[in-house]
Amino acid sequence: MRTQTKFTQENLTPADAHHILAEGNRRFVLNVKAQRNLQEQVFETSKGQYPFATVLSCIDSRVPAELVFDQGIGDIFSVRVAGNIVNEDILGSMEYACKVAGSKILVVMGHSKCGAVTAACDDVKLGNISTLLSKIRPAVERVDFEGNETTEKVVEEVCHVNVQLSIDRIREESAILAEMEKSGEIEIVGAVYDVTTGQVKFI
Description:
- By secondary structure, this protein is of the alpha/beta class.
- The protein is 47% helix and 13% strand.
- It has a domain at 6-115 and 174-202: Beta-carbonic Anhydrase, Chain A (3-Layer(aba) Sandwich), CATH 3.40.1050.10.
- The chain has ten helices and five strands.
């Protein structure tokens, strides 16, 4: 697999970028990785970077975006924060990735069995973690709890809602990204990674 260049990045459509990620995850699930010379990519990207995708995902150690999408050095801007939440700094990072550096797709990716989502469901109070979890609470409040228990099904539902609410915040709070999506320059899409199977499902 070749390293992304300015030419290849500029000639990709958002649909192309989506397809590349989907195919990469298919390879990951099948454990058939694309052949890459990572040292060569280190050298080539030292001259400049042209990532085709930006992925906002959780800090969970089981969900490294480059690996689950089978991408190399210089392919993905990886934005990671517990619970894949959105704030000003993250919006600024994504605006840079798309508007300045040319990414064609912005993926907000949650995952199954998310500790941050579980903690938000349980209304955990602990230092600065509480402030972060407060950004997931709106998703919790939209899901009906079964007997007030944080079941695996509840966590999964909150995860999906949280992804959608993060996308909503991006569109509402970033005029730059909203306009780029409207004009067809980028695609903004949600996804959920299954930590049991390794599969990413776009939603």
